[in-house]
Amino acid sequence: EVQLVESGGGLVQPGGSLRLSCAVSGFTFKNYDMTWVRQAPEKEREWVASIRPSGHPEYADSMKGRFTISRDIARSTVYLQMDNLKPDDTAVYYCNAQRFERNYWGQGTQVTVSS
Prior knowledge:
- It contains no helices and eleven strands.
- By secondary structure, it is an all-beta fold.
- A hairpin with a 4-residue loop joins β7 (67-72) and β8.
């Protein structure tokens, strides 16, 4: 059974940090493009960052310098380190795995940035 389980969300003050985790099972993690996307209330889903099978990271422009995507192949886990968080970063963050026609999603984790 394919599973992607996100964790690490919560309430944080502006300027703070969070690290999201996405633990996967049921497929060969290292062969997939792993991506974080987010969706704020009443907004469209937005791409945040991806890490390719090669390990190469890619970021949306607004996240560069603040967010870092990484992975631990041994733990089948992808991470999103988020620093200097802003209220506009408030959203549900989803983990996605994609390889050819296979496309898997986690259930999401809520991140709220507020004072």
